[in-house]
TrEMBL record:
This is AAA+ ATPase domain-containing protein. Residues 949-1172 form the DNA2/NAM7 helicase-like C-terminal domain. The keyword Nucleotide-binding applies. Residues 415-560, 837-911 form the DNA2/NAM7 helicase helicase domain. SUPFAM superfamilies: P-loop containing nucleoside triphosphate hydrolases. It comes from Tessaracoccus flavescens. The keyword Hydrolase applies. Gene3D superfamilies: P-loop containing nucleotide triphosphate hydrolases. Keywords: ATP-binding, Helicase, Hydrolase, Nucleotide-binding. PANTHER family: DNA-BINDING PROTEIN SMUBP-2, DNA2/NAM7 HELICASE FAMILY MEMBER. Belongs to the DNA2/NAM7 helicase family. GO terms for molecular function: 5'-3' DNA helicase activity; ATP binding; hydrolase activity.
Length: 1229
């Protein structure tokens, strides 16, 4: 810009700072733009991966993806409504650039490439000032353009509280004609001044943390005391290293040894890390020197003497000494737990340079401090990869809540409980931040593994981080063996990676991926074979099922056909009966009342047969009355004769079709022949006439009346003749009725036969389908209710439901036939020894760039991720987050679009430095360090919120329920152990172990003095009271200023006795099958860990353990671990005057987080060694579980001891029996 160029402000109205022209551009290839260009391309690649429509739109428009996104968001010459937010927090008068986010706030434009409800966000740089590249003079930039350096997806909608709304016309500078002047540029100094900070709280925190880092940097620089050594050898005790140390003179060397001897956080550095070969000088810049940790100086006296061979040394009077330092606590712990101690010892020694410098470990933190300062600067200038990270990084209440829950179609771990599934769902759904609190044993690592797998299956990437190497390695080890999860562990210090994490390093990670591929192909082939077998079984079943359905349907159809014909015959039969009724015959019931049952039909048949036999004589009485027939000599009169003649007539008629009736005819004829000839005066068959035709009774009475007038007699005679006519007509219907009756009888027999066939078919079908239960047919309880149509419908439904499966099985079968040989060769190649190592040399870098799960510690050098191009991720998961400071969280948080923080703010808080003793920060000031820098109580109080405050706790309390989840079902501890731990969780923990007495049985019986039990199988929480020693004498801890401070010889010896007793008990039980019992030994203090280690080493010199495997460490190192048995040494013992002793609320034993972690490591048995008189009065402050509660002061130890005593599990130290003499002396009072 020339000096004559007028300011754009002069061209605009005073209140017009939020409208005008917005000039935008993309970074080019100029050197100062290359970093922005790289970020732009990475962000575009990320967007196109998640939204393929963007790439399609760019291809259709024949432009690059970045230009397409620029055109979509900042279409040239078109108006736009934008929401502008300032990311940069000013850091001085020379601040030149301001980084902002621009978000489309209006309606989606035609052809919008993102889903509904998703907007575009651009991160861009706005040059407030220019810099003369020759003079480096700064001058105002009155007419800037907005340079876009990344695109992201974001929320739609209007401006939020930290944004301003702009109504602009977009102008792309690349489309301007050369020499075109920018008019009404909205990017003015006044607009910059009007932009609110994205978060005032974040601004404050950034300033506070910057001050803290500066203090820490100066503290480290003031503690750069170093000892130069020229050689090192393994000590005779196999647990220490002897160094040949040299210095400028005897006095200086003695003084330096004395100062470093007071430190327990030392490291050995190779001479190459120093700019001077003899005087320790770390170079400035990006180098990150790493030393090998060593332990404290041993008590062996150091003799300083003149150097025997001063050649090559830069001093006039060099001095030398032999000084012994123990191996580091981590190295000693690794040796103790190793299956090959000699090999582990060799590895530990090999890590220590053969010559170099012994320096305080804090020196290593300097490069970390510098990295954290750069991370703070980046957050201050540009925010993180998540566009609005600065808004919510210190206030979870500002994090967005999900508008919908991400669906989960498949759970890779099918054993997750409801809370764990909800936690995974929230991790997937939270747009900015998710928080998972996982108390001990509740499976937070299980949640992490499932969430990572779910994200990876969605073609997204995960950065897994933690404050500790162990936590990262543990979470990685829980990942499923799946080719969709390409996991790698990255670090510049591979010696710190645990055994669990080793398989995720470099070529081993590639080998694991190869094995997962081979395993997946094998599983796919086995699954294809299983599907083929299923298809075969289904085909066989279908064939048999169809046969059963066909047979049952045929039987049902025959029944329906016969039933129809039977019903038709019955209907015709009843129709004829209706005809009789219509002629006056007294049919017993109306035809519609007759059922089709066999008994009803038989009754009707009997009645009809009787009627048929009576018909021939029914009109005789009427005819006699009418005078048509008179009885007399020789006539066949009389009732009996009439009846026999009628029966003969009927039988004769039936004999035409039934020859079997001859005997009946002969019998009736003989009976008729035998009747007397003078029977003509017998009674007429009038009774039957009246029975079948009731109207005949009155009619015959009238006709027989002597006084009936002629006209009426004429009338009744006429009625009588009509009745005779109807009797004749009824007789005419009988042959057809007989025929239909016979037909109906035949059909009834046929129907019974058909029904038996149906019954058999139903039983056959029931047997068949019952024998194929795997196909899940719904069968009635009784076979006679089976219906072919229902079975066929279920069969067709089964085939329809499995049609795709069968088609896929067929396709897989065809592919298997075509590719099986190739797959066999490929699986064999993937399994070849050394194949991953060979491939790593050629494709290692490319494979790293494709990894979708990357594990690092929070303090890892960012270049470890940048070098292979792993710069941005979809999700960052930080485990054990309650132990991490915000500074440590910055690096992983700034690299992802969204984050999940997993931890428990009721366990250990952040530490000042990773290697410090579990006691916390030392209370003593080093005289050589300036007072304003030393870790004095005053300075500790000044920076307390940085050292001990957990950001996770504040986040969890302020977060919306939709983005946080608390796990409360624990699967680690026996309920008796959980009862003690639950005091720190307001009783919210529940036991998820189904049968704890079986699943958490420790199986131990330990007897002590008088052969009385100290530990029995039914006791899972035991407290050994060490107020008095094994002889019942009062015991007191060493003086605070002694070299044995924070140790307890009595508890160390009791623990060794307990280890020996457990070893003997476990070894004596053959049911254990030689399996080693794992035991963890935990103390609040590092000094006591060393003391216990000394006692164990002495014990093992004469008699090694044969049935147990132990791991000894501090509470700090034990967080995240678990063991079947945990022995805890509480250490502190105030002696006989314990009740009057003031108890510090800052002591580790008074901090509930330490107690919680120490006690909650146990699965089956927890044994606490502690002085009841000292701890019972301890008041422990318990903060509320939620923000709405209030802190409480509780005598937690007293409550635990009281419950343990009521359960019969509180024992005196003397109960274990008399101890052998101590190896290192004791303190008694």
């Amino acid at each position: 810009m020339t000096e004559t160029q007028p300011s754009v402000d002069a061209l605009m109205a005073p209140d017009d700072i939020f409208s005008g022209n917005l000039y935008v551009e993309l970074p080019g290839d100029r050197p100062w733009e290359r970093d922005d260009r790289k970020k732009l391309m990475a962000s575009c690649a990320d967007l196109t991966r998640r939204y393929p429509a963007i790439r399609e739109g760019a291809q259709n428009a024949n432009v690059t993806v970045e230009q397409y996104l620029l055109n979509t968001m900042f279409a040239d010459l078109l108006p736009a409504q934008l929401s502008l937010a300032k990311l940069t927090f000013p850091r001085g008068a020379r601040h030149i650039d301001i980084d902002v986010t621009m978000r489309l706030a209006g309606e989606a434009r035609p052809g919008w490439p993102l889903p509904k409800g998703v907007s575009l966000v651009a991160k861009a740089r706005w040059n407030l000032k220019g810099v003369d590249r020759q003079t480096e003079d700064v001058y105002p930039n009155n007419n800037p353009a907005l340079r876009v350096w990344s695109f992201h997806d974001g929320p739609p909608g209007g401006a939020r509280i930290f944004e301003v709304s702009l109504d602009v016309v977009c102008r792309q500078t690349a489309r301007l004609e050369p020499g075109t002047r920018k008019q009404r540029n909205v990017l003015t100094q006044r607009l910059a001044e009007a932009l609110p900070a994205i978060s005032e709280l974040t601004g404050e925190r950034l300033r506070d943390w910057s001050d803290f880092l500066e203090w820490k940097r100066r503290l480290i620089q003031a503690n750069r005391e170093a000892l130069r050594y020229t050689s090192r050898t393994l000590g005779a005790d196999q647990r220490s290293v002897s160094f040949t140390i040299v210095g400028a003179n005897a006095g200086a060397l003695q003084q330096a040894i004395g100062r470093l001897a007071r430190s327990d956080v030392l490291a050995a550095f190779d001479t190459s890390v120093s700019e001077d070969e003899w005087v320790f000088q770390l170079p400035e810049g990006e180098r990150e020197p790493r030393g090998s940790d060593i332990g404290r100086k041993t008590r062996v006296r150091t003799q300083v003497r003149p150097a025997a061979d001063p050649s090559g040394m830069p001093w006039d009077s060099p001095a030398t000494a032999e000084a012994a330092f123990s191996l580091s606590d981590d190295a000693l712990a690794a040796i103790e737990t190793s299956g090959d101690p000699s090999n582990a010892l060799g590895r530990a020694l090999k890590l220590i340079p053969e010559s170099g410098f012994i320096v305080q470990t804090a020196v290593q933190d300097l490069s970390q401090v510098n990295r954290q300062a750069r991370a703070l600067a980046n957050l201050s200038d540009q925010g993180g990869y998540s566009p609005y990270l600065a808004r919510y990084i210190f206030d979870a209440a500002e994090a967005r809540t999900p508008s919908f829950q991400t669906p989960i179609d498949r759970w890779f771990n099918t054993h997750l409980n409801a809370e764990q599934r909800s936690a995974v769902q929230k991790v997937l759904s939270a747009p900015d931040l998710c928080l998972i609190q996982g108390p001990p044993g509740t499976g937070k690592t299980t949640v992490i593994a499932e969430a990572i797998t779910q994200v990876a299956q969605r073609n997204e990437s995960v950065l897994l981080a933690s404050q500790t190497h162990t936590a990262v390695d543990n979470a990685l080890s829980r990942l499923p063996f799946h080719p969709g999860v390409r996991a790698v562990r990255l670090t510049r210090n591979e010696s710190r990676v645990s055994d669990e994490g080793q398989e995720f390093l470099n070529e081993r990670a590639l080998g694991r991926y190869y094995r997962s591929l081979a395993n997946a192909v094998g599983e796919a082939r086995r699954a294809a074979a299983a599907e083929s077998e299923f298809a075969t079984r289904l085909a066989r079943f279908t064939q048999g099922a169809e046969r059963q359905v066909v047979e049952l349907r045929a039987a049902e159809e025959r029944v329906r056909d016969v039933t129809s014909r039977y019903q038709s015959a019955g209907d015709q039969y009843l129709s004829l009966l209706q005809g009789l009724k219509g002629r006056g015959v007294a049919v017993p019931k109306s035809a519609t009342d007759w059922s089709s049952s066999d008994s009803s039909a038989d009754l009707l048949d009997t009645w009809l047969s009787d009627f048929e036999e009576a018909v021939p004589v029914l009109n005789y009485p009427l005819r006699i009355l009418l005078g048509d027939r008179q009885p007399g000599p020789g006539s066949h009169g009389g009732r009996q004769r009439f009846e026999l003649e009628a029966q003969l007539t009927t039988v004769v008629e039936k004999m035409k079709t039934d020859a079997s009736l001859i005997e009946k005819w002969q019998r009736l004829q003989a009976e008729l022949d035998g009747l007397p000839e003078d029977d003509e005066n017998s009674a007429l068959p009038a009774e039957k006439l009246v029975a079948y035709f009731p109207e005949a009774a009155d009619l015959m009475a009238e006709l027989q009346s002597k006084s009936l007038p002629p006209l009426k007699r004429l009338k009744y005679r006429k009625l009588a003749r009509d009745l005779i006519r109807r009797i004749d007509e009824a007789a005419g219907l009988l042959p057809e009725a007989n025929e239909q009756g016979d037909l109906r009888d035949d059909l009834r027999t046929e129907l019974h036969s058909a029904e038996r066939l149906v019954d058999q078919a139903q039983r056959n079908a029931a047997d068949y389908f019952s024998s194929h239960r795997q196909f899940d047919f719904s069968l009635p309880a009784q076979p006679d209710r089976l219906v072919a149509a229902d079975l066929d419908a279920q069969l067709q439904s089964l085939l329809s439901e499995n049609s795709l499966r069968l088609a896929e099985a067929s396709r897989q079968q065809q592919e298997g036939d075509a590719w099986s040989d190739i797959q066999d060769d490929w699986i064999a190649d993937l399994g070849c020894d050394g194949v991953a190592e060979r491939d790593w040399e050629t494709i290692g870098d490319d494979w790293l760039a494709e990894c979708n799960v990357v594990g690092v510690t929070c303090n890892e050098n960012p270049r470890t991720l940048d070098d292979p191009g792993l710069t941005n991720f979809d999700l960052t998961i930080i485990d054990e987050v309650s132990k991490a400071t915000p500074l440590e969280m910055l690096m992983p948080l700034m690299r992802a679009r969204r984050s999940a923080l997993v931890g428990d703010h009721r366990q250990l808080p952040p530490m000042f430095r990773e290697g410090q003793d579990a006691e916390g920060l030392t209370e003593e000031s080093d005289d050589a360090v300036p007072e304003e820098l030393a870790l004095t109580p005053e300075n500790l109080k000044k920076y307390e919120k940085f050292v001990t405050a957990s950001l996770f706790r504040t986040h969890f309390e302020r977060a919306d329920d939709s983005i946080r989840e608390r796990l409360t079902v624990q699967h680690r501890m026996h309920p008796d152990i959980m009862d003690s731990v639950n005091r720190f969780y307001e009783g919210q923990l529940t036991c998820g172990i189904n049968h704890p007495n079986d699943e958490r049985a420790h199986g131990l019986t330990i007897k002590g003095r008088g052969d009385l039990p100290v530990i029995s199988p039914d006791k899972h929480m035991v407290w050994i009271d060490t107020t008095h020693d094994d002889q019942g004498r009062a015991w007191t801890e060493p003086a605070p200023n002694s070299d044995k401070a924070r140790t307890n010889d009595l508890e160390a010896r009791l623990i060794v006795r307990m280890l020996r007793d457990i070893d003997d008990s476990w070894a004596s039980d053959p049911a254990n099958g030689g399996k080693l019992k794992e035991i963890g030994i935990v103390s609040m203090y590092q000094a006591q860990v060393r003391r216990i280690r000394q006692e164990i080493n002495e014990e093992l010199r004469n008699k090694p353990f044969k049935a147990i495997k132990y791991e000894l460490n501090t509470v700090v190192k034990y967080q995240g671990k678990e063991k079947p048995i945990i022995l805890v040494s509480m250490v502190r013992n105030f002696g006989p005057k314990a009740s009057n002793r003031r108890r510090s609320s800052r002591a580790n034993v008074a901090r509930f987080e330490y107690i919680n972690v120490a006690f909650s490591r146990a699965q089956e048995l927890l044994v606490v060694f502690g002085a009841r008189d000292t701890f019972a009065p301890y008041e422990v402050e318990l903060p509320p579980m939620d923000a709405t509660g209030s802190p409480t002061i509780a005598n937690v130890y007293r409550e635990i001891c009281d419950v343990t005593e009521r359960n019969g599990a509180l024992k005196q130290a003397s109960a274990l029996g008399e101890l052998p003499p101590t190896h290192a002396g004791a303190t008694r009072r």
